[in-house]
Design goal:
Layout (H helix, E strand, L loop, with lengths): L15 H5 L3 H12 L17 E3 L6 E3 L5 E2 L14 H13 L17 H10 L7
Antiparallel strand pairs: 1-2, 2-3
Length: 132
């Protein structure tokens, strides 16, 4: 019998362990690659879709050469005007995407690199639930 795709190793490309070991620069590069995946990870203007951009060295923002729009990796997303580190939002995204069950409060697998049998036992051993 074939294994469900979410239980295979191919589905676990972004683990929490790997995210929390990333530096801020690595987390920003990973978030940028995910955010602009439609263009192969290449940054483009969210307003006019132009790929000709300037990169600011002092801050992690870009400016479009065509329309002069300044934008960041979180512009136009639910993470715009964020207060947390990008690594935290990347971890939250990984928990949400890697959750096999539809209940986000109890992701049974995906955030660890353990086999499926230990993923079903581990939540029972946790004394405190993180989310209500």
């Amino acid at each position: 019998m074939a294994q469900h795709f979410l239980l295979t190793a191919a589905a676990r490309t972004l683990s929490l362990k790997a995210i929390f070991r990333m530096s801020d620069d690595e987390a920003h590069e990973t978030f940028t690659a995910i955010r602009f995946a439609d263009n192969g990870g290449e940054v483009f203007c969210p307003r006019c879709q132009c790929t000709a951009i300037y990169t600011y060295a002092a801050r992690r923002i870009w400016k479009c050469k065509a329309c002069s729009h300044q934008f960041s990796v979180t512009s136009g997303t639910i993470f715009a005007s964020r207060k947390l580190a990008i690594r935290d939002y990347l971890a939250a995204t990984a928990i949400f995407v890697n959750a096999v069950s539809s209940d986000i409060r109890n992701p049974s697998r995906g955030d660890t690199e353990n086999p499926a049998s230990s993923a079903t036992v581990t939540p029972r051993r946790m004394p405190v639930r993180v989310l209500p």
